[in-house]
Amino acid sequence: MQRIDTDVVIVGAGAAGLTAATELVKAGREVVVLEARDRVGGRLWTGEIDGAMLEIGGQWVSPDQDALIETLADLGLETYERYREGQNVYIAEDGERRLFEGEIFPVPARTEGEIVGLIDKLDALVAEIDPDAPWTHPRAKELDEISFAHWLETQTHDVEARLNIGMFIAGAMLTKPTHAFSALQALLMAASAGSFSHLVDADFILDKRVVGGLQRVPLGLAERLGDRVRLNQPVRTVRWEADAAAGAAAVVAVTDELEVHAREIVLAVPPVLVDRISYDPPLPRRQHQLHQHISMGFVIKVHAVYETPFWREQGLSGTAFSPYELCHEAYDNTNHGDPRGTLVGFVSDEAADEVFELTAEERKSRILESLAHYFGDQAKHPVVYYESDWGSEEWTRGAYAASFDMGGLARYGADLRTPVGPIRFACSDMAGKGYQHVDGAIRMGRLVAEQILEELA
């Protein structure tokens, strides 16, 4: 067993952990980053599948993501706009294919009025929410004790309006059914993006991509850190002291090969993985409790690559939505400078459960059939097809991110980031602004580094 002594040990080489390490090194501190996988990036992963570059994990950049945009500039990475010219597609309950432009779906006038009204109500509520502390809202407990589905039912009897508004939070963000998370959790999701209106505006929330893939951010940060980053090192045990002498090692992170002794440790992993580590002494009761009330969502990200972006020839943008379809949303995901065309679609929560009961070929057929409802029979014949299944990833266990169960956010949210002795926590799942996004991970990495530097000063 090799022993390493350092100032700070960081568990997890995703955007949060690598940002924290970068900031600490800039300030003259020594760090060691331990990563369980054989690669850096966490939920950012650009892979080559059958000759096609696919962003298997996160990929988009929105204009409000200041921390991410600053990091892209610092690393010298270029971005390009998502293709969005032409008409969008909406599939109605009866299967009718309707073309539209703008943000509001082509639904009956009464339903459109209800959708607009719900967006206005949600924007008003979101404006009252502090994304860094949603539990401080005067009605936090009340809003956290009712599901988002129930809240929507209290606002309108229009089922199609409820399904479409729910889709933007449930299917597109939290990837859980609307009955499985609270109204407060939904408001946090919207507040983290600035407003609910931002979430329904695909041209805002899914604005740009990085040339070469968003994983270039953690790859670039890791390259600068050099051999401070150790791959294939899952941390099995953390031994810690609450009151170590000043300047002394207060924590030891143990892998199968290494013992890293440090004054502080950052667990830069999704909250659902925190209790995969053994602690000596055990974490406090509060930590044990809160980690039983938080879980990952589940979504299949489907990549379909075609010889050409054929939908553009039909005057279509590649953007499509329907709360009635297996793929509830789809986008033109063609890579920068690639003559081929790529569609990306998403199958969320209970629908994803259902198709994973099928064989791989049956599942592929069902998913491509859904894409064909939007874009025609050509969508059934990709030259490359791939499903991102983060639920099977040993060191992630779901997607896109973790959220609390009913009542959990108001009850435990304030403890999610609270340090335990020398143990600190940083992850996009804990962010306020940028919650669930790379921007939030970078913000959390910066925040925890700042706190550690103050502690070690």
Structure description:
There is one protein chain. The chain has 457 residues and is of the alpha/beta class. It has three domains: 2-43 and 215-283 and 420-456, FAD/NAD(P)-binding domain (3-Layer(bba) Sandwich); 46-61 and 78-84 and 205-210 and 298-392, Polyamine Oxidase, Chain A, domain 2; 109-200, Orthogonal Bundle (Guanine Nucleotide Dissociation Inhibitor, domain 1). It is built from 17 helices and 24 strands. The strands form six sheets. It has a seven-stranded mixed beta sheet. The longest helix has 19 residues, at 438-456. It is globular and about 70 Å long. The mean pLDDT is 96. This is Putrescine oxidase. It comes from Agromyces marinus. It holds the Pfam family Amino_oxidase.
